[in-house]
Fold this protein.
Amino acid sequence: MATQNAALDSAAPAPSAPDYEAIVIGAGVCGVYQIYRLQELGVRATVLEAADDIGGTWLRNRYPGARFDSESVSYGYSFSKDLLAEWNWSERFAGRAETERYLHHVVDRFDLRRHMQFGCAVRAARWDEGRRQWAVELADGRVLTTRFLLTSIGMLSTPTLPRYKGVDGFRGVSFHTYHAPREPIDYAGKRVAVIGTGATGVQVISELADKAGDLTVFQRRPNWCAPLHNAPISPEEMATLKASYDEIFAACRASAGGFVHQPDIRRTLEVPEAERLAFWEKLYATPGFSKWVGNFGDVSFDARANAEYSNFIAGKIRQRVKDPAIAEKLIPTDHGFGTRRVPLETRYYEAYNRDNVHLVDLNETPIVEITPAGVTTSDREYPFDIIIYATGFDAITGAFDRIAFTGVDGLTLKDKWADVPATAYGVMTRGFPNLITLAGPQSASVASNFPRAIEDIVNWWTDLFVYLRDNGLTRIEPRQETEDAWGRHLKAVTDSLLLGTARSWFTGYNSNLGREYKNRYLIYVGGGVRYREELGREVASGYAGFDKAFPI
Ligand code: NA7
C-alpha cells in the first residue's frame, strides 16, 4: 500500500467496491447541480431524497407569499447557455411555484431524475476506514455504500415550533410555514394568526393582509424590512436580460454575496448629508437587496454609519405606518439595519394601516398558551381559525444533527460540532474523510445568493473529485492546521462586521431550542470573491491542506 499520509497506513482489510462512487443527500438546488456535474463525468452516483420529489426549499415552503428575495435572473443556474436562453422568468422576483417549475425543467431537460431516488430519508452514515467508504443507512433499513458522501440537506430545512403549552391541541388549521399544506387554503373570512416576523412571517403577512378576514400578528422582535419592488418581466425585457447574462453573472461574481448589487465604497459620514439622503432615497426605490448590499459599505461595519442608515429606514417606517404607536413597535431597537437577515416586503408596513390587521407585541403581552380555540396572551384570549407558525429553523446545523454521522474512531459529527462547527472552508471536516458538506456551516453558501455560491462550491469539489480519481486517491480529509486556519479566518471576518453582534439564526440563536449562542461562527461572511480565492489557493497548492491517500 502506498499513501501520502503515514497515519493512514495502518488501515487494513482488503478493499471492496462500494455501491456508488458518490451519494448526494438531498435533491434541492444544490443536489440537482451536483448530480448534473457527476453524471456529466460518468460517475456512478445517486441522489437520495427524503421527499417524494425534487425542489428542497421550493418544494416545502408552500406558505402564502413565498418568493425569491434574489433577482430571478441571478438565481437560475449559470452552467448552461442553452438553459439560460430557453427559460423565461415571469417576475423580477419569482414566486415559489415558478421556482419549483424551473427546477423541474432543469431536471427533465438534463434527464437527471434517473439518478435520483425519492422517499429515501437518510438516518445514519458511518465511515468504514477499512473499506474507505461510507455506509449510508436509510429509514427503511436499507444500507448503501459509497466512496464519497455529499450533503445538500439545506440550511433551513429543520423547522422549529414554539414551545408554548397546547401547540398540538389547537382545533383549527395550524402549520409551520415550512410544512404549509399542498392543498390551497381559502383565507377569505377566516381569523388568522401569524406568529413570527422574520423574512418568512413578513412575506406571509404581506400576502394575507387583504385576503384573510382578520389577521393578527404576534411579534416578539421586529426586523428592519425594506421594499422588494417586484414587477412582471415582459417578453422584451426578458430578451434584453438574456442578452445580458454574462454581465449579470460577472456582477454577481464581483459582489460579496453573489447579488447583482455592488456596494458604494464612500464612507457614509464623509458624504454630505443631502447627498447621502438623496442616495438612500434612490436606494429605497430600487428593487431587491440593493438597500442592504448596494449601500455604503461601512454601514455593515461602522456602528455610527449603521445608526445613521437605521435612522433613515426608521423614518420610512414612520412614514408608511399611519398609527405612530404601531410604527414605533415595528422599528427594531435591539439591532441595527442589516445585522440580521433583512426581510424584503411588498406593502408590509401598509398592512398595519388596515382595519382587519392587528399587531400584538409579545413583549407587552406574552403568549401564555395555545388553546383549542386560539391563542391566550397575558391579557386576553384570541379565537382563530388558522394559526401560522413562522417561527424559523434549527438553522444551518439542524439538518446535520438529524443524521447520525459517525467518522473515524467513532467520532460523531453532532459531538464534534456541538459547541462550534470546525471545518475546512465549510466543505469538509476533520475526522470525517470523504464527507463533503456542500452548503455546510462556515461555507459561503449561507450568506449568499444561494445558487451562485453553490455553483462555486460544487465546481470546486467536482474538480477535486477528478483530481483524486486521476491520481488514484481514495481518501481525503482536511489537516488540523487547515481547519484551525479557517476557524481563525472566519472569526476575523465575522468580528470585523456588525452582523455577528445580533441575536439571529446567523449567529446560532434559537429561543425554541434554548440556544443563546452569540458569534457561533456558523456562516462565512468574507464574501464570494475572497472565498473563491481561498479555495483557489488550495487548488494551486495541490490541495496541500488535505491529507490524501492511495487505495489500501
Ligand atoms: P427567522 O428569521 O428565524 O424568524 C423567526 C421569527 O419567529 C422571528 O420573528 C422570531 O422572533 C419569531 N419567533 C420564533 N420563536 C418564537 C416564539 N416562540 N414566539 C414568538 N415568536 C417567535 O425565520 P424565517 O423563517 O422568517 O426566516 C428564515 C430564513 O428563511 C430567512 O432568512 C430566509 O433566508 C428564508 P425573534 O426575532 O426571535 O424574537
